[in-house]
C-alpha cells in the first residue's frame, strides 16, 4: 500500500508541468545617478536622498508572488489585458459572469503586472510594500462560491495603504520600527473581506502618514523607498501621504485602493495620479486598526480610476465599529453605486472659488459644469486661520499612538508611546530616519492637553465650518469647487467630505483634479456630482509608459 502511494506521488510529481513564469531576482542598484539627477529639481521635496528601501528586500515580495503566477505567462497577460486594463468593477464582474474571466485570472493578472513593472529598473515605481501570499488561492475560492447576490466588491483585488491592518501582512506605516507589526485586520479590512473583497497587498506611503520628517519628499518611507508618479517618474510629485495607493491604481496594479487622510492625504495623491479620491466625512468609516495620526481628523477612503468604483469600495467599508465612537449611528449599508447613471448636474448650485479662476484648467471645467446645467456662483470665502492646527495634530498623535500600540499592534511590538518610537529611531538613525524625524520630535515637545486641547479642537472645527458654510448658506450651494487638495485643511477641520475627479492635465502632462466639497454625510450627493462630471469629461488618460 505504501509503495502504491509513493508511486502515485512520484507520477504526480513527474507529470507536473514546467512553470511558465520564473521571476528574475531583483538586484539593488547604485542610485547615485538618480539622486544627482534630481538634486536641482524645482521642488525641494523632489530632491531625493534615497529611492530604495533602507531595509526591505524586494525579493521577499517576489517570493510571495512566485508560486501564485508560476503558471501564468506573458501570453496570458496580453490575452487578458483588454478585459482588465482600466476597466471598472461592473465591467470586470460582467466579464466574470459571462465566463470570459475568472477571479483567479484577474488576481494573477495584477500580480504579474506588478512584477512586470516593479522588476524593471527603468519603470519601477516603488509603490508596493508587500503582497498577500494567499491572494490567488482566495480568488480561486471566490470562483467556486460566487452567487447572484454578491456585493460588487466580491472577488475584486483591493490594495491597502500600509497603515491599515491586514492579517498575514505586517502593518508598517512605512517604518522600520513597525517592520514586524503583524497586526490583525482593521475594521474596514474585515468589512471588505466580509463582502468578498480580496486584499491583494499593501501600498507604500509617506512614512507615518507624512507626519515624521520635516520637508522630506512625499511618498518616501524606509520600508518602501521613494514612491514615484507614473505620469512622470522623478518629474512629478506623487502627493502624500497615500502616495502608493495613488501610484498603484494609476498604473493598474490593482482594481481599487484604500487611502487615509488627515488633511489632504487622499485628495493630494489622487489628483496627482489622475484618480477619483474620496475623503469621507469623519466618522463615516472606522479608524479601528489603522495606525493613527489624529483621531479628530483621520479617515480612510477609496482611491479609484472611476467614480462608480469609488462608490462600490466606499459601500464595502461602511459599518459601525464599537471601538470607534465616531462611527456611532453613522450611515451604513448604503448602495452608493446604485442609480449613479441617472446623475444630472442640472439646477445644482456650485461655489467656484474666485481665487482659483485664474487657473485656466479650473476655469475651463467650471464652465463645463455650467454647460451641463450647473449654476455657478463665484465665491470668496473669508480667509480663515486654523489657529493651533499643528498643535492639535501633535497632541492627538501623542495620545492616539498609545491607544494603537496597546489595542491594535501585534504582541511582539514593545513600544508603548511616542517617546519609545523616537528613542528607537535615534538608535538606528541611518536606517530609520534618513531625512530625520523633525515632526516626531515636535510631538514630544507639545504641551497642549486637557481643557486647552478640547477648546482648540472646538475652535478649529468651528473655523472650518464657517469657511464653507457661510457662502454655502448665503448662496444656497450644493457644493464648493476646489482644485486638488487646495482646500483640504479647511475641509478636514470642518469634517466635510471631499471628492476629487480628474479634470485634465497641465502643459507639462501633470494631472489635476477638480474637487467637490459638500456638507457632512453627503457622500451620495458628491458621488452623483462626480459621476455626471466624469461622464461628460472623461478626462483620465492612462500613463503613457504604463499602457
Outline of this structure?
It is built from 20 helices and 13 strands. The protein has 547 residues and is an alpha/beta fold.
* Number of E-state strands: 13
Overall 3D geometry? globular
**Low confidence ranges:** 8-13
Percent range for β-strand residues? 5-15%
CATH architecture: Alpha-Beta Complex
CATH top level class name: Alpha Beta
CA radius of gyration: 23 Å
Number of domains: 1
Spatial ordering of strands, largest sheet? 1-3-2-6-8-7-12-13-11-9-10
Kindly report the name of the CATH homologous superfamily.
Answer: Amidase signature (AS) domain
CA-CA gap between termini: 55 Å
Q: What is the arithmetic mean of pLDDT? A: 96
Helical proportion, percent range: 25-40%
**Helix/strand class:** alpha/beta
Question: Overview of this structure, please?
Answer:
The protein has 547 residues and is of the alpha/beta class. The protein has a single domain (13-23, 50-546), classed as Amidase signature (AS) domain (Amidase signature (AS) enzymes, Alpha-Beta Complex), CATH 3.90.1300. 40% of the residues lie in helices and 12% in strands. The protein contains 20 helices and 13 strands. The strands form two sheets. An eleven-stranded mixed beta sheet has the order 1-3-2-6-8-7-12-13-11-9-10, sandwiched between helices. Strands 4-5 form a two-stranded antiparallel sheet. Strand 12 and strand 13 (511-517) form a beta hairpin. Helix 14 (389-407) packs across helix 17 (438-445). The longest helix has 25 residues, at 450-474. Residues 8-13 have low confidence and may be disordered.
